[in-house]
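re: the backbone from monday

yeah here it is again, tokenized this time
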């Protein structure tokens, strides 16, 4: 059994209505002047106004930064740093999906440690303490609230940079499934598939551990059982709760085990084509599972046994891949790169970018640019 070290650095506050506790949680962390990072869609949904009322009632002086987009890049983070620097903020709150949470982490990192995001690519390069942070995810997908990584694209090269450091972990994550009611069905579908991809990839990476496997399997069990249900019954709070908690568990698994080839191939698509991350994964993951199955078949079998009622004598890679295709179809997500508007002439460039992704180094099969091109061609 592989040695490992495990520490859950983030306080989890889970359950319907827990957003109402945000003022006291912020006060517990010594926050008085937080920067609230939330994109404009989150503001339009009314979540920013509600959070502001709760924080104001707790006596906090809050400033809001919302000048960034889905799939934030380094220029947007720099804009947030320029906004926050003269305001003397003592803490950061990320409210929204993965874009808001990762942007909040990136702003905090540069506010406290200076430099450029590219300086922190990899892990453990922050030399100074960061401001305390709270995550309030409004989507059941990214798992960023459970991770010490910010994944942000370089504004010039478009390459996704994974910037990690123990100090980037949120001090607290407030997971209120009622916040996910504001999601459109399209966002629910794409975010949910993102979470499922996290559960599947973390189950087979070279860095997986005994404890990450526990979180991967429980995440897959919850997400697989409730994906279609949340689309069919979007007002079912129990189903929303299961999806939200499953996404958090998958994020915990990422923190231990990292991700693999599907994310390495998805990142260039989100950076160059602005495809929603979950959409890119829905196209790619079934092909990666089949490609990995030669070396990860038994691990996939364990995952299938945990979350799916499948015949014991079937090929686990094919069974899982078929199930993932069915999930993507249920979510109305495109099944091919062609359907998503990707140009065939771009596959070589995309494959070259994918081969440079740090995430791919943890895949159970070695991922080169040539291998990534094979995946893209199969997915086209």
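seq for it, each position gets an aa:
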């Amino acid at each position: 059994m592989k040695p490992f070290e495990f520490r859950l650095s983030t306080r989890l506050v889970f359950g319907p209505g827990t957003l109402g506790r945000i003022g006291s949680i912020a006060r517990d962390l010594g926050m008085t002047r937080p920067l609230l990072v939330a994109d404009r869609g989150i503001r339009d949904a009314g979540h920013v106004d509600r959070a502001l009322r709760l924080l104001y009632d707790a006596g906090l002086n809050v400033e809001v930064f919302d000048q960034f987009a889905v799939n934030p890049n380094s220029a947007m983070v720099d804009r947030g740093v320029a906004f926050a620097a003269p305001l003397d903020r003592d803490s950061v709150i990320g409210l929204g999906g993965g874009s808001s949470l990762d942007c909040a982490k990136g702003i905090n990192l540069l506010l406290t440690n200076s430099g450029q995001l590219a300086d922190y690519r990899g892990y453990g390069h922050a030399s100074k303490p960061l401001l305390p942070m709270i995550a309030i995810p409004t989507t059941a997908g990214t798992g960023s609230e459970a991770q010490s990584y910010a994944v942000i694209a370089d504004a010039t090269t478009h390459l996704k940079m994974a910037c990690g450091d123990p100090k980037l972990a949120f001090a607290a994550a407030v997971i209120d499934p009622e916040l996910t009611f504001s999601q459109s069905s399209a966002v629910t579908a794409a975010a949910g598939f993102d979470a499922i991809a996290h559960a599947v990839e973390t189950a087979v990476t070279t860095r997986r551990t005994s404890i990450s496997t526990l979180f991967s399997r429980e995440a897959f069990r919850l997400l697989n059982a409730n994906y279609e249900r949340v689309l069919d019954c979007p007002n079912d709070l129990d189903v929303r709760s299961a999806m939200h908690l499953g996404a958090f568990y998958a994020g915990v698994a990422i923190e231990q085990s990292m991700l693999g080839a599907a994310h390495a191939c998805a990142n260039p698509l989100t950076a160059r084509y602005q495809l929603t991350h979950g959409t890119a994964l829905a196209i790619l993951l079934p092909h990666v599972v089949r490609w990995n199955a030669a070396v990860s078949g038994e691990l996939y079998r364990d995952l299938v046994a945990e979350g799916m009622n499948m015949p014991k004598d079937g090929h686990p890679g094919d069974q899982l891949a078929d199930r993932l295709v069915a999930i993507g179809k249920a979510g109305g997500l495109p099944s091919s790169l062609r359907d998503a508007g990707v140009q065939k002439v771009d596959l070589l460039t995309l494959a070259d970018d994918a081969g440079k992704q740090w995430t791919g180094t943890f895949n159970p099969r070695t991922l080169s640019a040539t291998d990534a091109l094979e995946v893209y061609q199969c997915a086209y």
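The chain has 13 helices and nine strands. The two ends are 39 Å apart (CA to CA).
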